[in-house]
Design a protein that fits this description.
Number of helices: 5
Distance between the termini: 40 Å
Shape: elongated
Radius of gyration: 23 Å
CATH class of the largest domain: Alpha Beta
CATH topology of the largest domain: Alpha-Beta Plaits
CATH architecture of the largest domain: 2-Layer Sandwich
Structural class: alpha+beta
Helix content: 25-40%
Length: about 250
């Protein structure tokens, strides 16, 4: 008779409010299993070799019910800060027997060329690019743009020259609520595409109000990442250690 496998027991934990004084580093400690559907856990010794850290991280998948919502909320905030004024859709079609991946690899590089041309013509052009695939499997791009006035015929002419694809659509953004609807529509409609995980990209100055990230001093020795919650990874790899907790997602021994 099959017996239910015994779950690993949670190791002893010493809770401490003074953890932050132990290590003068800052890290992104991720999110707990109570929120993320498919967490990964990072573990390794700090740069001085004095403390073993175990950190549970986001799965970062758009298809994760919690991570996907968190990422959309962050993307909405970024796009609203950028104060865009146009939606632009660029279609892509194969020439001959090209696969969707081949079309994507070629056309994604041509977007940068298109933007260079438009900047020479109208000045500032900054954008957030959202990749979506058509029912046929071939890619097309939704751009949230901040720019001066764009001529649809000129934009279409340059896109044809660069990609042999003719259809370009330009629409004015009427308010921040419309940005939110646009993002939810095109991101949640399709959790992933088969040939790349990089669905969202930004031009360098799209969000001028974004705070630059500080480079972390947190270096690890013999660091590893494993699938599973922090409790599971600790029980499997370090069953005899006693832990101090910074957050539910970051333990130290």
């Amino acid at each position: 008779m099959n017996q239910k496998a015994q779950e690993p027991s949670r190791p002893p934990v010493e809770r401490s409010e003074t953890f932050t004084s132990l290590v003068p580093y800052t890290v992104d400690c991720g999110i707990s299993k109570k929120v993320c559907r498919n967490p990964k856990t990072f573990h390794g010794w700090d740069v001085n070799g004095n403390h073993l850290h175990v950190i549970e991280q986001f799965c970062e998948a758009w298809s994760c019910p919690k991570c996907g919502r968190r990422k959309i909320a962050a993307l909405m905030a970024k796009c609203q800060r950028a104060d865009p004024n146009r939606f632009v859709t660029l279609t892509c079609w194969p020439s001959g027997d090209e696969t969707p991946r081949q079309v994507y690899d070629y056309t994604r590089r041509q977007i940068a060329e298109l933007i260079k041309v438009m900047r020479k013509s109208i000045g500032e052009v900054e954008y957030c690019r959202v990749l979506e695939t058509h029912e046929s499997g071939f890619p097309h791009y939704h751009l949230i743009v901040r720019s001066g006035w764009m001529d649809q015929a000129e934009l279409s002419r340059h896109w044809v020259r660069l990609t042999n694809s003719m259809i370009v659509d330009i629409r004015k953004i009427k308010g921040k609520r419309e940005i939110a609807r646009y993002l939810v529509k095109y991101i949640r409609k399709q959790d992933s595409v088969p040939f790349t995980s990089r669905r969202i990209t930004f031009s360098k100055n799209f969000d001028p109000g974004e705070e630059p990230r500080e480079k972390s001093d947190f270096c690890f020795v013999d660091a590893r990442t494993e699938r599973g919650t922090i409790e599971e990874v600790v029980a499997w790899n370090y069953p005899d250690k006693t832990w101090t907790v910074k957050t539910d997602n970051h333990w130290i021994a």
